[in-house]
Amino acid sequence: xxxxxxxxGGLVQAGGSxxxxxxxxxxIFRFNTMGWYRQAPGKQRELVATRGTGGSxxxxxxxxxxxxxxxxxxxxxxxxxxxxLKPEDTAVYYCNLFVLDHNYWGQGTQVTVSS
Length: 115
What we know:
- This protein has 115 residues and is mainly β.
- Helices cover 0% and strands 57% of the residues.
- Strand 5 (46-52) and strand 6 (57-59) form a beta hairpin.
- 31% of the residues are buried.
């Protein structure tokens, strides 16, 4: 059984930074994609960034230049460094693992950016 555990969310002022972490555990095929999605109140869940084990990276337009995704394949861990945060970045951030056509999700971590 695959489990994803996120950490690192919290409250930060506009212009500040946060670093999210997500550790995947269980039986995980070594070729996979890990990433982050977010969901703000009243909105659909949206892609933030993903990174494959081979190094391929995908960013949403709003994340490019401010957020950086990285991962440690040996530890099945993915990180999201978020800089220059804006109030509109306020959302629940979910870790995602896509492997062998299955999506796995973490429980989510709240990020709140005050103006």
